[in-house]
Amino acid sequence: MSIINKYREKERLMRQLQEELQAMEEKQELKQELAFKTAVEEVLKQFDKSESELLALFGASEDTAESGKSRRKRTPSVYKNPQTGEEITVRGGRQKDYQEWIQKYGKETVQSWKVS
């Protein structure tokens, strides 16, 4: 691609982004959020407080606020081999005993042994 074609493509993309920004700026939801943010910043400035102090006031640490969502822990499943009476607890399916059972007896058979 020639340099002039790259330039024109960038211009087109910039116009497209400007149109998207303009459409967002017209939305009432964005206006409300910006107004809220400004009001909070003014209150923080008025009382000489930082964002971390505000988060601490409401019981949130900076780490939790920035980390976003965290993965939930996997629920353990218990399988009991009816032939041997042996029980294993599995979280996620990568345990050595569980994999050995699947290889020896088959996945459907092992799944039928699920207790909880």
TrEMBL record:
Coiled-coil stretches noted in the UniProt entry, renumbered to this chain: 7-34
Entry keyword set: Coiled coil
Region (Disordered): 61-94
Keyword Coiled coil set for record: yes
Chain ranges passing through the membrane: none
Domain of life: Bacteria
Positions of the MvaT DNA-binding domain: 78-113
InterPro entries: MvaT_DBD
The protein's name in its UniProt record: MvaT DNA-binding domain-containing protein
Natural source organism: Oceanospirillum linum
Organismal lineage: Bacteria, Pseudomonadati, Pseudomonadota, Gammaproteobacteria, Oceanospirillales
